[in-house]
Amino acid sequence: MPRVVIASRIYAPEPAAAAYRLGALGRALARRGAAVDVLTSRAPQGRTTDAGVRVRRWPVLRDASGAVRGYLPYASYDVPLLLRLALARRPDVVVVEPPPTTGAVVAAVCAARRIPYVYYAADLLSVAAAGSGVSPAVVRVLRAVEGAVLRRAARVLTVSDPVADVVRTFGVRDERLEVVGSGVDVDAFASEPAAAQQEELLVYAGTMSEVHGAGLFVEAFGLVAARRPGARLVMFGGGVDREAMRARAEELAPGRVTFPGPVPAAQVAAAFRGARAGLASLRPGGGYEFAIVTKVFAATACGAPVVYAGPGPCAGLVRRHGLGWAVDFTPDAVAAAMEEALAAPPAPDERRRLAAWTRTDASLTGVADRAAAAVLRVAGARAGGGSRP
Predict the structure, then answer these.
(1) Rounded CA separation 177/59 (Å)
(2) Which range scores top for mean pLDDT: 66-70, 105-109, 206-210, 378-382?
(3) Under a CB-based contact definition with an 8 Å cutoff, are residues 379 and 5 in contact?
(4) Percent of the chain residues topping a pLDDT of 90
(5) Does residue 21 register a pLDDT over 80?
(6) b/e for 131-169, b at 16 or more Cβ within 10 A?
(7) Which letter does DSSP use for residue 325 in this model?
(8) Most CB within 10 Å of its CB: which of 69, 277, 309, 312?
């Protein structure tokens, strides 16, 4: 039986894309007969009990929004991880998720114990930092660390071809690179009959940070609110921009925009099922235009069309598959799409079509199966005495 350790600062059931992605990977590995240990942080709420997956949690620092984000929160996870991983029963392979500081800890321990590791490059933090105004000196250090972690990995998993192209710029060879895709947990974000009385509701669910520029939706809703007095906007999740967005929302549309914080996926799904549209964005000019924004799929999995603002592959997906509106990253363009969405609820047949497309083309189960197969090939090479790929 192959033994796999997943090292990540967050894991299911936390309401975050990385947590959903790694939870799906853990289940996929267990289905294939692996013994899976997850070394993660103590979740603010809830627990996961997936068969074949043992989750070991450690208390960490969190920022004001509840996220494990920033130098001290990262260190509060990474420093204990050094000992946790060094003392863990010897695995055949370790899977590690960003940030690259966690990758560096895993790389060091795995080098000492002669264990291969797989880096799940769903994010490239040095690229995000370069586009968000971080000091060039810090970006250079971060890029050096991230590059070293990527190059030393037995395999690097990426979520799309554009991300793979960026990974290659760090010197990662094609034989160590695998594109597994991106998607959403269609069981957590399931399409069920919508509420009988669908209100004029718009829903955002996810991180509110400089990369996403989610404050755009507050500005756009401010333009819409006076013309549609029954409309509401709900912003689920946390992030560094959340409090500033909350204050701005009270200026533009008092009492009409709510910020429930990070909540379980079932609560988000229930909101999407009754919403006129979901919202997703990617700020242009941040160097992160290659990113896949999984917020798109969370909405469509529940049968809600999406208003997507910004560049990148998601704009093409929305247009190509009729998933909603793909517009420029401006308040006026977003407000126009919001008004069109609010004018009438999606027909039941359209909701079913969106949910069916998501289940077929953007299911996290399929992504996790491809990722698990890649991880187990690395584990098999080690167990069979093969050289590191």
Answers:
(1) 33
(2) 105-109
(3) no
(4) 71
(5) yes
(6) bbeeeeeebeebbebbbbbbbbbbbbbbbbebbbebbee
(7) E
(8) 309
H-helix or E-strand spanning residue 4: strand 3-7
pTM: 0.85
Helix H or strand E encompassing 99 = none
Residue in the structure block whose two tokens are 């043992």: 54
Q: How far apart are CA 64 and CA 242, in angstroms?
A: 10
Using alpha carbons only, how large is the chain's radius of gyration in Å? Answer: 21
In whole angstroms, what is the distance from residue 81 CA to residue 105 CA?
A: 7
Helix, strand or coil, per DSSP, at residue 379: helix
Beta carbons within 10 angstroms of residue 389's beta carbon = 14
Domains of the chain: 3-183+363-383 (3.40.50.2000), 201-361 (3.40.50.2000)
Q: Do the beta carbons of residue 385 and residue 162 sit within 8 Å?
A: no
The residues, ordered by sequence, that sit 6+ positions from 212 with a Cβ below 8 Å of its Cβ are 206, 239, 281, 282, 283, 293
25 closest CA partner among 176, 142, 157, 190: 157
Which pair of tokens denotes residue 160?
Answer: 């799309």
Find, among 174, 147, 177, 146, the residue nearest to 159 by Cα. Answer: 177
CA 122 vs. chain centroid, Å, equals 8
Cα–chain-centroid distance for residue 340?
28
C-alpha 270, offset from chain centre: 19
Size of the chain, expressed as the number of residues it contains? 389
Q: What is the pLDDT of residues 244-274, one digit of tens each?
A: 999 999 999 999 999 998 888 889 999 999 9
Give the single-character DSSP code of 232. E
210 φ/ψ angles, rounded to the nearest 5 degrees: -65, -30
CB 206 within 8 A of CB 237: yes
pLDDT digits (tens, 9 = 90+) for 128-173: 887 777 888 999 999 999 999 999 999 999 999 989 999 999 999 9
**371: amino acid identity, one letter:** A
Tens-digit pLDDT profile for residues 189-246: 876 655 545 689 999 998 888 888 999 999 999 999 999 999 999 999 888 889 999 9
Beta-sheet strand order (sheet of 177-179): 53-58, 35-41, 3-7, 93-96, 117-121, 155-158, 177-179
Residue pair 189/303 in contact by the 8 Å Cβ criterion:
no
pLDDT for 328 equals 97
**Residue 228, number of CB atoms within 10 A of its CB:** 15
